[in-house]
């Protein structure tokens, strides 16, 4: 007699995290390194080195091979420097190279001669970078904002990719979209290294951004769909580690390759190596089942069972009623249900804000490490190393309290950001240490919000809740580069804003329910208690949904 089992029960039977799943996670984790490269590369390719405005009345060396001897960039970067000299030039003394002027003479000229625009262009220091996007296309002074706008357009690509490739993945499968995403990502990434102008470069980066969402989302979903419920938290954090490894490796690559085009090529070309994924990356059995391809799904399950050393009996079949159950439950609820009732509305809006602020501050700190005064390469390395303990510590704190863990790390991140405001510029080490603590707190908090969200939202609207939270997170990513335009108002404004927004998130988290060691809510009535009528929660009428699969446990609907 054949026995029908739902997919979670079959996974438990064949091993929820056996050899098959471990090999799958190797294939899922490797692209995370390249994703980190693409997400953070603008720290180096978009850097703005110290620069001086050329004057048409001043003799300048015409060689472009290196900095002229004794070139005095301290005129704009030193303790007594004048940043305004980067965007305007003194009338000068004809025939006198500015490089030969001492500091006091140069400033005296600035006071005694009318300033003029940089008609002769700019001279950039090559001490740290041989070339960047900013130096090649003069993205300074009146055009300085284009750099930040370009980063925001890239981040907006993640929003577009989430919507576009999310829809396509449901239609064509997780595996196919991952393969397509990696191909487009590598092609456009390499193309960006040969971009003829800034606008083509930004467009290609935008396309790369869309593929980041395609790969991240579908790799995560593919992994969780093949992993048993007991191992999903650990498996999810493992992928985050590889993003951290990419963070660290990028610091070394950027240190060795100081030309932006060569660096862009170096991080993009290796993506073509993933062509072998055509043969090793499995499809999602859950997706096949949801699309009524039951025989193909069972073939994959049996292969996984053999690899895990737990072959499946021939008389076991996937319960076909499972698909109908999921479809019926989902059709009864919409995104509106996230805010329809009081308690659900409060929890939803707070979770959306937490997604937004975590990503806003995470990328706000990560993409502007040059502001902290230390070597940009060393700071990048430190920020990457912080990722490892920040994600590891959550494994120990989450089992004690989701809510307190979220609050604690938000407070740590917010206070550290605010304290950097009070540190003088000449104490760059202390500022970097505080920024590192802030990065530690916000990284841990970002790790927690993924898990906390899945437990706050009830089963019938969990996917909708996490999807909306993800959209809010990407909105934070789009705004992160734009926030730094506030430096035109006050140099301290971005860090003040990051700190206050994070502390507000910590305060709002106090209003969320504690979910550790609690059964997951299946429907909205579980969240609201007796405050809503039975008629408004038709999704509670579940018994008939399980008749085709008597072994189904209603507590494990994912």
Automatic annotation (TrEMBL):
<feature type="transmembrane region" description="Helical">
    <location>
        <begin position="263"/>
        <end position="281"/>
    </location>
</feature>
<feature type="transmembrane region" description="Helical">
    <location>
        <begin position="152"/>
        <end position="169"/>
    </location>
</feature>
<feature type="transmembrane region" description="Helical">
    <location>
        <begin position="348"/>
        <end position="365"/>
    </location>
</feature>
<dbReference type="GO" id="GO:0016020">
    <property type="term" value="C:membrane"/>
</dbReference>
<feature type="transmembrane region" description="Helical">
    <location>
        <begin position="234"/>
        <end position="257"/>
    </location>
</feature>
<protein>
    <submittedName>
        <fullName>Solute carrier family 22 member 6-A</fullName>
    </submittedName>
</protein>
<feature type="region of interest" description="Disordered">
    <location>
        <begin position="527"/>
        <end position="558"/>
    </location>
</feature>
<feature type="transmembrane region" description="Helical">
    <location>
        <begin position="24"/>
        <end position="48"/>
    </location>
</feature>
<dbReference type="InterPro" id="IPR005828">
    <property type="entry name" value="MFS_sugar_transport-like"/>
</dbReference>
<feature type="transmembrane region" description="Helical">
    <location>
        <begin position="493"/>
        <end position="512"/>
    </location>
</feature>
<keyword id="KW-1133">Transmembrane helix</keyword>
<keyword id="KW-0812">Transmembrane</keyword>
<keyword id="KW-0472">Membrane</keyword>
<dbReference type="Pfam" id="PF00083">
    <property type="entry name" value="Sugar_tr"/>
</dbReference>
<feature type="transmembrane region" description="Helical">
    <location>
        <begin position="201"/>
        <end position="222"/>
    </location>
</feature>
<dbReference type="GO" id="GO:0022857">
    <property type="term" value="F:transmembrane transporter activity"/>
</dbReference>
<feature type="transmembrane region" description="Helical">
    <location>
        <begin position="429"/>
        <end position="453"/>
    </location>
</feature>
<feature type="transmembrane region" description="Helical">
    <location>
        <begin position="176"/>
        <end position="195"/>
    </location>
</feature>
<feature type="domain" description="Major facilitator superfamily (MFS) profile">
    <location>
        <begin position="97"/>
        <end position="517"/>
    </location>
</feature>
<dbReference type="InterPro" id="IPR036259">
    <property type="entry name" value="MFS_trans_sf"/>
</dbReference>
<feature type="transmembrane region" description="Helical">
    <location>
        <begin position="465"/>
        <end position="487"/>
    </location>
</feature>
<feature type="transmembrane region" description="Helical">
    <location>
        <begin position="404"/>
        <end position="423"/>
    </location>
</feature>
<dbReference type="InterPro" id="IPR020846">
    <property type="entry name" value="MFS_dom"/>
</dbReference>
<feature type="transmembrane region" description="Helical">
    <location>
        <begin position="377"/>
        <end position="397"/>
    </location>
</feature>
């Amino acid at each position: 007699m054949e026995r029908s089992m739902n997919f979670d029960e079959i996974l438990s039977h064949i091993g929820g995290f056996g050899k098959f799943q471990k090999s799958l996670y190797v294939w899922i984790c490797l692209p995370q390194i390249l994703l980190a490269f693409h997400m953070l590369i603008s720290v180096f390719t978009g850097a703005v080195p110290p620069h001086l405005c050329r004057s048409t009345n001043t003799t300048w060396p015409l060689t472009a091979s290196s900095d002229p001897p004794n070139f005095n960039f301290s005129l704009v970067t030193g303790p007594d420097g004048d940043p305004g000299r980067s965007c305007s030039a003194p009338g000068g003394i004809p025939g006198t190279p500015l490089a030969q002027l001492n500091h006091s003479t140069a400033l005296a000229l600035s006071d005694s001669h009318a300033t003029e625009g940089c008609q002769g262009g700019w001279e950039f220091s090559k001490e740290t970078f041989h070339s960047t996007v900013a130096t090649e296309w003069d993205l300074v002074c009146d055009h300085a904002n284009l750099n930040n706008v370009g980063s925001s357009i890239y981040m907006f690509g993640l929003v577009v990719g989430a919507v576009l490739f999310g829809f396509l993945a449901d239609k064509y499968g997780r595996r196919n979209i991952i393969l397509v995403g990696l191909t487009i990502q590598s092609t456009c990434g390499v193309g960006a290294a040969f971009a003829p102008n800034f606008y083509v470069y930004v467009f290609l980066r935008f396309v790369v951004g869309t593929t980041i969402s395609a790969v991240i989302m579908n790799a995560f979903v593919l992994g969780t769909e093949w992993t048993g419920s007991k191992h999903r938290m650990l498996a999810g954090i493992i992928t985050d580690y590889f993003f951290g490894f990419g963070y660290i490796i990028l610091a070394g690559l950027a240190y060795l390759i100081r030309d932006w085009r060569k660096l862009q090529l170096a991080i993009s070309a290796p993506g073509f190596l993933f062509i072998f994924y055509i043969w090793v990356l499995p499809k999602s059995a859950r997706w096949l089942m949801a699309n009524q391809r039951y025989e193909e799904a069972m073939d994959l399950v049996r292969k996984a069972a053999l690899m895990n050393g737990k072959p499946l009996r021939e008389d076991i079949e996937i319960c076909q009623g499972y698909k109908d159950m999921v479809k019926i439950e989902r059709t009864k609820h919409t995104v509106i249900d996230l805010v329809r009732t009081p308690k659900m509305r409060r929890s939803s809006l707070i979770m959306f804000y937490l997604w937004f602020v975590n990503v806003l501050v995470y990328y706000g700190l990560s993409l502007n490490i040059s502001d902290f005064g230390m070597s940009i390469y060393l700071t990048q390395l430190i920020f990457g190393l912080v990722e490892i303990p920040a994600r590891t510590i959550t494994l120990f704190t989450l089992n004690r309290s989701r809510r307190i863990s979220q609050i604690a790390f938000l407070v740590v991140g917010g206070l550290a950001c605010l304290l950097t405001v009070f540190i003088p510029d000449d104490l760059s080490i202390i500022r970097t240490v505080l920024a590192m603590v802030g990065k530690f707190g916000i990284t841990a908090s970002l790790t927690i919000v993924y898990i906390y969200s899945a437990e706050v939202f009830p089963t019938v609207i969990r996917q909708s809740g996490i999807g909306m939270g993800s959209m809010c997170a990407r909105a934070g990513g789009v705004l992160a580069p734009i926030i730094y335009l506030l430096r035109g108002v006050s140099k301290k404004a971005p860090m003040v804003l990051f700190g206050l927004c994070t502390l507000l998130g910590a305060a709002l988290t106090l209003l969320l329910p504690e979910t550790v060691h609690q059964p997951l809510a299946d429907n909205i009535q579980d969240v609201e208690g007796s405050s809503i009528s039975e008629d408004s929660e038709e999704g509670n009428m579940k018994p008939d949904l399980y008749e085709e699969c008597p072994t189904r446990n209603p507590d494990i609907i994912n």
